[in-house]
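As practice, study what follows.
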Amino acid sequence: MIMKYRIAILPSAKVSKKAGKLAKQFSRKFPSYFAVDNQKLLPHVTLLVVDMSANKRSAMLADLGRLLGKQQSLSLSVAKFDSFLGGWFALKIDNSVRLTNLRLRLARKLKKYGTIKQKSFRPHITLTKFKQAEDAKIAQKMMTSPSIKFDMDTIGVCLSNKYGQVYKIIKKFKLKS
């Protein structure tokens, strides 16, 4: 059976709580399909998605462990609120050369297990998806973007729903401090 595995940065508890709070605020103001809540849907920054056979999972996790065991944590910061076509609303993460290089190393390592699905990279933490696409642009102008800085010190292999929202973390990898 082919499974979709999401390799994602798992923000700290403080950042996750802030994302959940913001998602709740905005989804109360505008009808939405979902809101990140830290219980059923978990905040994350997708690095890439790989479609692969479930029976390759153990080998993939072992390979990831070797690669990420050498990886230093990175400092990340939220740049602003961001909206995407179709009503998506998120916290935009400043991209960096180190973050992009990590993604490339992950893609090179994981392509032998299956198909890498996420080719482009626009790092963000999705908060919600509004039912009316124009609400995302309105919401973006409603509030000053939060200034959030955090260390990326945990990467997870996750399962996600049809909206790409993480509902289960299969394995966490702690990065070097």
Remarks:
- The chain has a mean pLDDT of 94.
- DSSP finds four helices and ten strands in the chain.
- The longest strand covers residues 74-84.
